[in-house]
Amino acid sequence: MALNCGIVGIAGAGKTTLFNSLARGKSISGQVPGRTNLGQFDVPDPRLEALAKIIKPAKVTPTTVEIIDIPGLTKGGSMIKGGNQFLADIRQTDAIIHVLRCFDSETVPHVEGSVNPLRDKEIIDLELITKDLETVEKTRERLRKLAAVGDKDGKHGVEVLDNLIAHFEEGLPARSFKINKLDQKYIDDCFLLTIKPIIYVCNVDESSAATGNAHVEAVRPAIEEEGREMLVIAAEAESEIARLEDEEDRQEFLKDMDIEEPAVNKLIRAAYQTLKLKTFFTEGPKEVRAWTITEGTPAPKAASVIHSDMERGFIRAEVMKVNDFLTLGSEHACKQAGKFNIEGKNYIVQDGDIFHVRFNV
What we know:
6-stranded mixed sheet; Ubiquitin-like (UB roll); 13 helices; Rossmann fold; 3 domains; alpha/beta; DNA polymerase, domain 1; 40% helix; 361 residues
């Protein structure tokens, strides 16, 4: 499964610059100014690289992340017919990356006349809520028709959505709406934007990459109150780093900025953590590969990520920990050290497992 995230933010926040830094200098097919851009990027994982150095396979395949870059949103755009229509493009994404402008620039004027990330956050929050309100009202109308002919489930659904609409009218997102599991189906049917996990990125100038700035501190309390992840990234500088071909040059640039690694790596890790995703590995002379699963996935279901036949004919899994393999240097050494385990159908695959599946179909 590929992680799928949508980037949103007010016009001029630096979303596309962040998108380009994620691309690491690669050209993205279909990228058109003023249009939704889609890119699929490799997920950096030093464990995969270390495995490849030991095994020296014919092929190395990282897991990937899909990023949708939504053109800048505008205040009140969702109220205009056809306005902010790009929001529909992120309805199927797993998570939202909300970029906040936290830099001053004389050459990039702010659409609202001044830099104020807290205000910008409230504007985008309202645009997303307004779009969700529109969706829920349409769903409620459909359920009302069912209720009118005596459908009890439709009647109850109307009551649930009435409460959600009242929640929206208070300026609150769907993710903070309290609902029991039995009623969750009415919400799930709407594919709401504001129910998605969200990560905030404070886009700063290069000099603020390591420590942040006053704009970051102004918006921090609101994000902490939501209990959401917040990252500070100098997207313009990160984009320049991504274009450098020489690794030593990239490391020197990072050192000058007083940061240890590209912040986009932290962003991808934060997305994985937010969505409770884990990575396991398969290895052999033909290929070393990383795979993504959700937390709590049992061995047969993880095997299905590799191939559906593996789940259907699952017999057992042979498991090593990637850190043990990297320390000991081979599968044989792991067996000798008692670090090679046979696991059955109830085994829950862990982050960093090296996974071999025995199956028969």
